[in-house]
Amino acid sequence: MLTASMDSVRIFNKPTSADGNIARLPQYYGQNVFDITAMSKRLGQKDVETVRDIMQNGGKIDSTLASRIATAVRDWAIERGATHFCHWFQPQTGTTAEKHEGFMSFDQDGKPIERFRGSELLQGEPDASSFPSGGLRSTFEARGYTAWDPSSPMFLMESENNITTLYIPTIFVSHNGQSLDFKAPLLKSLERISDEAVKTLQLLGEKNITKAHVHIGAEQEYFLIERNSAAKRMDLVLTGRTVFGKKPAKGQELEDHYFGNIPPRVQAFMQEVEIDLYKLGVPMKTRHNEVAPRQFEFAPIFETANIASDHNQLLMKILRSVAARHGFMVLLHEKPFAGVNGSGKHLNWSISDSNGRNLLDPGTTPHQNIVFLTFLAACMLGIHEHAEVIRASVASAGNDHRLGANEAPPAIMSVFLGEALTRILDELLAGSSTKTSAEKTLMNLGLSQVQNLFRETTDRNRTSPFAFTGNKFEFRAVGSSAPIGYPATILNAAVTSALMKINEMLKAHAKNGEVSPEAVLSVVTEVVRKTQAVRFEGNGYSQEWRDEAARRGLSNTATTPEAISVFRNCEKTQFLQNTGVFSTADVESRGVIQMERYVKQRLIEVNIAIEMAQTGILPASIRYLGEVVALARDAASLSVPSPATKLAQDLGNLCNRVEAALTSLKNATERTTSGDALEHDSLWNTGLEISRNLMPRLEELRTAVDALEAQFPSQSWPFPQYSDILFTLE
Ligand code: ADP
Ligand code: MG
After folding, report:
1. Structure letter (DSSP) for residue 711
2. Cβ(350) to ligand 1 under 6 A?
3. Is the CB–ligand 1 distance for residue 35 below 6 Å?
4. Residue 701 and residue 690 in one domain
5. Based on the domain organization, do 209 and 280 belong to the same domain?
6. Residue-range definition of the domain harbouring residue 228
7. Using one digit for the tens of pLDDT, what is the confidence trace for 691-722?
8. Does 302 contact ligand 1 (Cβ within 6 A)?
9. How far apart are alpha carbons 540 and 23 in whole angstroms?
10. Number of domains composing the chain
11. pLDDT digits (tens, 9 = 90+) for 642-658
């Protein structure tokens, strides 16, 4: 069942070279990207250098240069078959948005021409009123603007029917300049963390560093199921998760799927995803089976944060479209199947300087290690102080099923450092770093010798939301469907805020703008002392940790409405404004939008469950019950003992249980959504009401339905079952 011959599997987009042979990767990698190489062929060297500098270091492109770039990119795109361009942006809906416009225009004589103006490259004007604004819209105008982000290259998207479109990565802002998307704040956070990191490095005596860059590698988990069976389940099609479904006899107990053979049809799918992404310059590296049946993972090589974020959006987009071509459906939902492992997105995060040195990489010299310890301390301080907002940044209806469900890190934000580093920090705390020289202290700590040791051993604890893995942090609480730009923005802001504090502390020790290594170590030690509560090396799934975390005063919010209520706490969100990443209005609106999405998604789930129970499950059950009752009656009339009698009783009870749970859910839903419950001002209460009141009732209905399903002949169950979906490869 799990094998299909490779013959039946077609790779649709296998690239060929001019001589008709199979093309090698370097021949097509990035071929659909208007990168520096493509630009060099069509723009003067000075222009290319200006663009390169802006891509790396930020800055604005003036209108005359924009015109030259527009002409160059138009010709490049048209030669490759493009007829349209679009501003591609990331409204807070979780997916990307695009508005296509033709190159079509008329010249003075009324003849049709292909035109693309600099102004069209720089700015677009989609109607903002169809996108979430969290109340910003009522205050400001409905108009929104998209503006080109030159730090992420333009690219061509090829779709099925040979349609090619030029995509322009853009930010999306309101008329008054408030950000309406995930990209604008990310760019701001990257600027700000760079500013503060450079200041820190200067205080540590490094005057030649001009910039710092955040790097991200996002591992993407997903389910790949058959489109035909998925299409028969309204819950999967409309919400990405099953609201009913009894666990199959075989789950993931055998652990035979993880890193197992990849079925050929799935491999063909993966290969095609990779080829499409290679053409788009996305450095896909790893593909493998995940823990659950039909669950897989893709990971690219890490890139600068803004590009990594755009590329993860592209990955999700390409996954969906290639899946359709192969008769599959891809599920990016965090928990598509109850009782089966869910999907996350591990966000690997590090920060480097303009010389390409990873600041989280412990080195071999005392100075390198002082830099390392300072930035490590900044990360710990950022996570410690801003844990609640970081937690809120990964909150979603889907992720509520995952965080704290013993398969993903708990909702308590803690940091795992590994044995070697823990020992070093503990010794730093216990020691007298201010008395001995920094060099001696570091030597005694044995930091440089253990550099390789903790690279090999730190990745073992899978239960921690923030694991230090040798030279980067792995943030594991991000949901599989989430755009990474948002949690990355919050994390950047948290570390920026920590660097601002550390810079103040360092400045207090500075002489002529520089701080002695001894003084730096004392500051690091102080931060390590302050942040002890956030360090945890044990099992994050255990009840003991939950109890211990409560004693330490760490927050633990299980649901989205509770988690995002932090956006209404000015004190807790102040750092987002202090760092300049968000304005006050931005903060409030983000919370509202997250709550709107939660409420909408949950209500869709509830309504679909009601509909499936009402129009599919109950009618089928009543029919089947009727058959069993008739059999029981026949047997009784002949005085033949039959299990039908007992089965009829059991079925009748289960049907009643389903009916009762259904009625209770329906009534509760009506109450929860009545009046102005979905209006702006009531939204926060409605969200809480849904998580506290509706979700337990939905769960009750599910339990009843799943119990009924267990009694049912498989072929009569009105929807494809878990066993059909998870264990059948067509
Ligand atoms: P795992 O054991 O978690 O699979 P990998 O070494 O495969 O870890 O890395 C996972 C992801 O982390 C990849 O996308 C990889 O490119 C990325 N990564 C590696 N080094 C860094 C770094 N310095 N900064 C950011 N991401 C990184
Ligand atoms: Mg990982």
Report:
1. T
2. yes
3. no
4. yes
5. no
6. 1-19+220-243+255-343
7. 999 999 999 999 999 999 999 999 999 999 99
8. yes
9. 47
10. 4
11. 999 999 999 999 999 99
